[in-house]
């Protein structure tokens, strides 16, 4: 993104899920879910907001989430944790960017 002027809208919908019963859920699989579904969203939103601020563009960051961001899913603890985190992250981004006319929507 650093090589281009920012768009007026950026939409994200990351999603990987590994299904396993909690006692069998490998830490590496849980971490991968968080890295892709939450950390990846954070990194992209951060870079896009930097470009929008730098270029003086008023636009939107839109996060497409999952029902698992509101209600847990059986055998999907990593995915659900990341999606719940995505909802909170979007709400925090909306507050951080409100004064710059950069709405964040989920």
From TrEMBL:
The keyword S-adenosyl-L-methionine does not apply. Residues 1-19 form the signal peptide. PROSITE patterns: ADH_SHORT. Its EC number is 1.1.1.140. InterPro entries: NAD(P)-bd_dom_sf (IPR036291), Sc_DH/Rdtase_CS (IPR020904), SDR_fam (IPR002347). It comes from the Bacteria. GO terms for molecular function: sorbitol-6-phosphate 2-dehydrogenase activity. Transmembrane segments: none annotated. Belongs to the short-chain dehydrogenases/reductases (SDR) family. This is Sorbitol-6-phosphate 2-dehydrogenase. The lineage of its organism: Bacteria, Pseudomonadati, Pseudomonadota, Gammaproteobacteria, Enterobacterales.
């Amino acid at each position: 993104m650093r090589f281009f002027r920012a768009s007026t809208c950026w939409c994200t919908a990351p999603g990987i899920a590994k299904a396993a019963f909690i006692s069998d859920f490998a830490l590496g699989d849980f971490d991968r879910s968080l890295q892709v579904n939450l950390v990846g969203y954070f990194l992209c939103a951060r870079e896009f907001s930097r470009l929008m601020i730098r270029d003086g563009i008023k636009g939107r960051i839109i996060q497409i989430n999952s029902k698992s961001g509101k209600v847990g899913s059986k055998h999907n603890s990593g995915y659900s944790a990341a999606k719940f985190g995505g909802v909170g992250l979007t709400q925090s981004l909306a507050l951080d960017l409100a004064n710059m006319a950069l709405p964040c929507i989920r």
